[in-house]
Write a structure and sequence with these properties.
The protein has 637 residues and is α+β, with helices and mostly antiparallel strands. Helix content is 43%, strand content 20%. The protein folds into 2 domains: 234 residues, Immunoglobulin-like, CATH 2.60.40; 228 residues. It is built from 15 helices and 19 strands. The strands form 4 sheets. It has an 8-stranded mixed β-sheet, with no helix packed on it. Strands 3-8-7-6 form a 4-stranded mixed β-sheet, with no helix packed on it. Strands 10-11-16-13 form a 4-stranded antiparallel β-sheet, covered by helices on one side. It is elongated, with a radius of gyration of 39 Å. The two termini are 61 Å apart.
């Protein structure tokens, strides 16, 4: 990527990281969907409160609780229940404080200076509804000129966000005039409080964000409504209440204005930044289009429907696989075929031989014997690596031999060295292809760099947009100036990436020939104008058919074309063909070897991955950790 492009990406990444730490996104593993307060005020100045909690509980939560730091001694008539199947099931009260309260039990008592109501929850995960009831004595303070209710329903340290908080306060009697009932709400600026009628007050806060609090204050200019109250103070209070609330309202309005101003600044700032970034992207788009025009995709010099010759007999199966499967299949998909086909190829070159005993089990029927061939030094390095891997399998150094069962045992027992051998074979094949000019590492790096750059820009633009709209509530329109050019440039990056493959012109040409040879082998019996190659050529063909995974189709073609395949005596005298056709194909040697190689490779990868834990964790039951969600305090005043 260009230097300025890296700067843009860095700026975006920094912004995203800043946004991600915004407290509005404080997450919890406990979801409080709704919290509803139903409050009935009595003539004696007490207040009956019913809190309804609708929560989603996960498996780690077994106790919920709420503390009242102030005036806990005022709480009486406490009960906890759960709504189950439309019925209310009351919990039993315990007089002993417990860190983990038993299911269907609750306690309500002082602990470490705070009054706590805690209850054991149902261990099943999912949505549950609990009702916590209590009476607050002396909740109303009666003055000469008014009666005041001042109560904090949610404390400032409430750490779990709630989707919705609602409440209703009902007075014992209706006031004569609506103006005799004054109400105020304190806490988040997104809260709302209103007089529904002459005796009902409602409040809402949606959502409730951690760090806020929620409290309600009412002044009732008919203090005689609470003539039964014992909490009376012989003084006037209404004017000072109005003065306090006016001051706090002015402060809240200033905060709202400041937030509005910040939002305008942020919006204009976002527009400016988006314009600047958009202009930068437009410049990159112009350069990218120029680069796209200058960079043509490498196509085969000649297209083939069929190719009858082996494109390059000097290349090892590992090299051919590198070309044929390049950008097409993952290593763990084709490497078992590389091992299988290389084994067959080495048998043709007399570096190993096979013996068959049909009286043994499937995996033990074929024995691979390694020869002490002085010509082994003439093999290519990728072939030597495969042969070296085979030489590690036999337990005996004299007359070394093994079967597929031995192979699987070795791969499973020595998973690390087995995977290392596989990786070395693939890397060596890559190096050999680079040495003959079929592969260019720098071209592959170009491909990866452009693709990575396009992906980074696309993802960062998406994150930038999401966080800008969610955290700062910026409209999508100011961001369009950067988003649209950014997406266009991202698409151009992917298009340029597609022009590079890592294979050179000669590599692409040979890859085309190998693909056409595969099709020729599959369709051989249907080709009208065809030569009939000698079977010795098909021996080599079958090495590549094994590598391409179409040996089964090729064998069917041979049986249709060559009558020798029906001659048991001929087949027995031709060891190689006998090996690959001595049984039906599902049990044939080629299929058995390929299946065994694949299983050995996959089990070795799995064993290698699982052995990396080192005993540092995972699956340990019991011990430390948070075993319950603790609800923060809600102060009552």
């Amino acid at each position: 990527m260009k230097k300025f492009g890296k700067i843009i990406i860095f700026v975006f990444f920094t912004l995203v990281m800043m946004f991600s730490f915004n407290k509005s996104f404080a997450a919890s593993d406990f979801d409080l969907e709704k919290l509803k307060f139903d409050v009935k005020v009595n003539q004696d100045g007490s207040m009956d409160v019913a809190e309804t909690w609708q929560v989603d509980i996960n498996g780690t939560t077994n106790t919920l609780f709420k503390t009242f730091s102030n005036d806990g001694e005022k709480l009486k008539n406490i009960s906890v229940s759960e709504i189950s199947n439309s019925e209310e099931v009351k919990f039993d009260q315990s007089n002993v404080w417990k860190n983990h309260v038993n299911t269907n039990y609750f306690h309500a008592l002082f602990h470490k200076g705070d009054f706590e109501i805690a209850w054991g929850v149902n261990k099943s995960e999912g949505r549950h509804t609990y009702i916590v009831r209590y009476t607050v004595t002396d909740a109303v303070t009666v003055y000469n000129d008014c009666a005041e209710i001042y109560w904090q329903f949610i404390g400032k340290n409430f750490e779990v966000p709630a989707n919705e908080v609602t409440g209703k306060i009902t007075l014992p009697n209706a006031v004569e005039m609506l103006d005799n009932l004054r109400v105020w709400g304190h806490g988040g600026l997104n809260g709302d409080i209103r007089r529904e009628d002459n005796k009902t007050v409602t409040f809402t806060m949606s959502p409730f964000i951690t760090g806020n609090f929620l409290e309600v204050r009412t002044a009732i200019l008919e203090p005689e409504m609470f003539e039964l109250s014992n909490n009376k103070i012989a003084t006037n209070r209404f004017d000072s209440i109005i003065e306090e609330e006016t001051s706090w309202a002015d402060k809240a309005n200033r905060e709202r204005e400041l937030i509005a101003t910040k939002k305008v600044i942020i919006t204009y700032g976002a527009t400016g930044v988006s314009l600047a970034v958009g202009v930068g992207f437009i410049a990159f788009i112009v350069k990218g289009i120029k680069k796209l025009k200058e960079t043509s995709k490498i196509e085969p010099s000649q297209r083939y429907e069929y190719f009858r010759e082996i494109p390059n007999e000097s290349e090892t199966p590992a090299e051919v696989a590198f070309l044929y499967y390049y950008k097409k299949s993952a290593q763990n998909t084709y490497m078992p075929r590389v091992l299988s086909s290389t084994m067959l190829d080495l048998s043709l070159k007399k570096h190993l031989t096979f013996e068959v005993d049909e009286n043994k089990t499937k995996k033990e029927q074929v024995t691979i014997k390694l020869t002490d061939d002085p010509n082994a030094a003439t093999l290519k390095e990728s072939e030597k690596l495969v042969l070296d891997l085979f030489r590690k399998i036999p337990k005996e150094s004299i007359n070394p031999q093994f079967n597929m069962k031995d192979f699987e045992k070795y791969a499973k027992k020595h998973n690390s060295s087995f995977i290392n051998s596989i990786n070395r074979i693939e890397k060596q094949a890559r190096k050999e292809q680079e040495s003959i000019g079929h592969y260019n590492k720098k071209m592959e790096e170009h491909c990866n760099n452009w693709a990575t750059g396009g992906a980074m820009i696309f993802v960062l633009l998406a994150l930038f947009s999401v966080f800008s709209m969610a955290v700062f509530e910026i409209n999508i329109l100011p961001l369009v100036c950067a988003i649209i050019p950014g997406i266009v440039y991202s698409v151009i990056c992917f298009a340029i990436s597609g022009r590079y493959t890592g294979l050179t012109q000669s590599g692409i040409d040979e890859k085309e020939q190998w693909e056409a040879l595969k099709k020729y082998m599959e369709d051989y019996s249907m080709i009208e104008d065809k030569e009939v190659p000698e079977l010795v050529i098909w021996e080599k063909y079958l090495v590549y058919a094994t590598l391409f995974g179409n040996a089964e189709k090729v064998l069917k073609q041979l049986k249709m074309v060559y009558p020798q395949f029906s001659d048991d005596e001929y087949m027995r005298n031709t060891t190689y063909f006998y090996l690959i056709t001595h049984s039906n194909f599902n049990d044939s040697f080629v299929h058995s070897v390929d299946s065994a190689m694949a299983k050995a490779y996959q089990s070795s990868v799995a064993a290698s991955s699982s052995s990396s834990g080192g005993g540092y964790g995972g699956g340990f039951s019991g011990g430390g950790g948070r075993r319950r969600r603790r609800w923060p305090e809600a102060d009552g005043r």
